[in-house]
Amino acid sequence: MNVTHLYCSSCGKEHEPHRLYNLCECGKPLMVAYDLKRAGATLTRESLAGREPTLWRYREVLPITDDDNRLSLGEGMTPLVEAKRLGEQLGIENLYIKDESLNPTGSFKARGMAVAVSMAKELGARRLAVPSAGNAAGALAAYAARAGMEAFIFMPKDSPQANIIECRQTGANVTLIDGLITDCGRIVAERKDGEGWFDVSTLKEPYRVEGKKTMGYELAERFDWELPDAILYPTGGGTGLIGMWKAFDEMERMGWIDSRRPRMITVQAEGCAPIVRAFAAGESEGAEITNAHTIAAGLRVPRAIGDFLMLDILRKSGGTAVSVSDDELLAAVGEIGAAEGIFPAPEGAACLPALKRLIERGEVRRDERVVLFNTGSGLKYLDAF
């Protein structure tokens, strides 16, 4: 194990490793620190060539101690598709789509849950709970089943039917709530101690972000260790955005990449855009959105606990935050599908109208290398169409 300690992303307080944690005493997310010199003794750019095509290829910078606790359904190493036809339509020379829909359970959430549930298993948890708008629930249900654990899932009743069915068919205990994901989160927080649940909510435990950061490692590896100019990322809880930024820092410290970073661009729905509003207002945290609404269930997060981290990343990278309408993102599903043969989730499709807007504003140049993240499969959103 190369983990040296955990640290608070806000107050900086250090915590002993290899224990079950939720948040720091100050109420902010914890992050994992590694001995990167030790990790780099066996994890090198050259050593990756013969490794398994899953996120566990980066095992030296993942927190598992005992490989017997490692859970895998084949997550990670998703395609990075060169979107030539879509790029031609937009006049972009180097446009790519990182297609996370090919992960187990059909979304990028499999990455985070693979690592979080593996660590929960290693640290002795047996009953896991999560509030979710859909895909995180499906991923938790699958990996909990793989581990022989119980999963307790709280979802808004208008979550995509595919996610609800998926959770039930993989053995989870599913409760549907008349409300938003924040309402589901309050129920988990109120009941977890009495029920003996370990809360694996977004950024309320330290290890989902470790699974998500592997998207950053994969981008660097696929681009031969030269990061793209801009990354457009559909943002609800923001774990993937935060994780990739952490990965870039780790790779630089291991000497794999230089200090240049992509502009990180958050994409949200107009009906739920707390990061967009806070970024525009120059705020360091987002205010909770009342009556949040969007057909893109994964973007319906009225307030994210890691909002201060996301806003800091956007500003440090020279990025921005863009919101698009439901009509735009739904239309973009068909545009991407017809041009590239990828059936994206509405969340991922939202990146296309956002990119169009940024090109019009001159904030993305046509000669830049740009990556759009499709975070899930459109097959899980058939009721949206």
Question: Can I get a quick summary?
Answer:
The chain is α/β, with parallel strands linked by helices. It has helices spanning 36-39, 84-90, 109-122, 135-147, 161-169, 181-195, 208-212, 214-222, 239-253, 274-281, 307-316, 326-340, 346-349, 351-361; strands at residues 3-8, 14-15, 30-34, 80-82, 94-99, 127-131, 150-156, 173-177, 198-199, 230-234, 263-269, 320-324, 369-374.
What does this structure look like?
The protein has helices at residues 36-39, 84-90, 109-122, 135-147, 161-169, 181-195, 208-212, 214-222, 239-253, 274-281, 307-316, 326-340, 346-349, 351-361; strands spanning 3-8, 14-15, 30-34, 80-82, 94-99, 127-131, 150-156, 173-177, 198-199, 230-234, 263-269, 320-324, 369-374. Strands 4-5-13-10-11-12 form a six-stranded mixed β-sheet, with helices on both faces. A four-stranded parallel β-sheet has the order 8-7-6-9, with helices on both faces. The model has no long low-confidence stretch (mean pLDDT 96). The chain has 385 residues and is an alpha/beta fold. Helix 4 links the parallel strand 6 (127-131) and strand 7 (150-156). It has a domain at 80-107 and 209-384: Rossmann fold (3-Layer(aba) Sandwich). Helix 3 (109-122) runs parallel beside helix 4 (135-147), helix 8 (214-222) packs across helix 9 and helix 10 packs across helix 11. It has 14 helices and 13 strands.
Mean pLDDT: 96
Order of helices and strands: EEEHEHEHEHEHEHEHHEHEHHEHHHE
Q: What is the annotated CATH architecture of the domain at 80-107 and 209-384? A: 3-Layer(aba) Sandwich
Helix-strand makeup class? alpha/beta
Percent range of helical residues: 25-40%
Largest sheet: 6 strands, mixed
The assembly state of the depicted protein chains is single chain
Shape: globular
Helix count?
A: 14
- Poorly predicted ranges: none
State the separation between the terminal residues, measured CA to CA: 46 Å
Strand content: 15-25%
Please write the CATH class name of the domain at 80-107 and 209-384: Alpha Beta
Total count of strands: 13
Calculate Rg over CA atoms.
19 Å
